[in-house]
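Database export, one record per block. Field names are fixed; values are copied verbatim from the stored entry.
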Amino acid sequence: MTDDAAEPRPLRGQVLSALCREDLDPYSQQDLADRIEALQAEIVRVQAQIAKKSQVRSSADALFSIKSSD
């Protein structure tokens, strides 16, 4: 068992909030470019999750929709 398991999990959005408030002055240009690359990869990951959830929702809607007979 590691010490990490004993630490409480951060609240939803807390990590992002802290990231947005972080002072960027100490970072070099390369550090900032690396940060942008990591953030862009995170955007792609989040967009993929949104697409996945949308597909699941569409499938559920199709399965449970009540078709009216015209």
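Remark 1: The two ends are 62 Å apart (CA to CA).
Remark 2: The CA atoms of residues 51 and 57 lie 10 Å apart.
End of record.
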